[in-house]
Amino acid sequence: MKKILWLFAHPRPDRSEVNVELAEVARTHDQVTFMDLYSEYPNFDINVDLEQKRLVEHDVIVFQHPLYWYSTPSILKEWQDLVLEHGFAYGSKGRALKGKLFFSVISAGANRTTYSREGGNEYEVRELYVPIERTWKLCGVEYLPPYVVYAAGHVGEDDRIEMHKQELSLLIHAIASRTLDFEKAKKAMNLSDDFQSLLSEKGGQA
What we know:
alpha/beta
């Protein structure tokens, strides 16, 4: 089973409409090491050696966060800037993360159609996330598109929260046990579109 490092970043969890509940799903899995970055580093004084050690000890890295201005909350940018050092994560001698896997769990305020060529935001979330994708690929890490919860402010009234919690639990298990169709998943715009089709009894390499 793959070991998963789950980096949760929400500056206002008291106002969360979906992330806290999804985070609790991640916490229940034995394969997951769950870290609340804002709780652990309230002053942004990130322990680089500790974070690098955690990365080395895990097979899968996950960012979970709300989509802020088409990007991540600020602590994740700080984490990347400090932890993914030259000579550790990239460069001729930076091979510590090669072969690991990365994906994100993201909540977005607008609905699915808004994040499309025809929608008001003009781009898919995966397209907006290209800097993150390129960062991890530079580090030799396999990249999966994000699992996106759209219209996050309406999950309660739409009765979607239980569906997302169940899907996230299945996704964690499928990745940990290698029963996700990784080749199909890599080509998707996001893991939440047609989710069930990504589950495979045969699994795949990643």
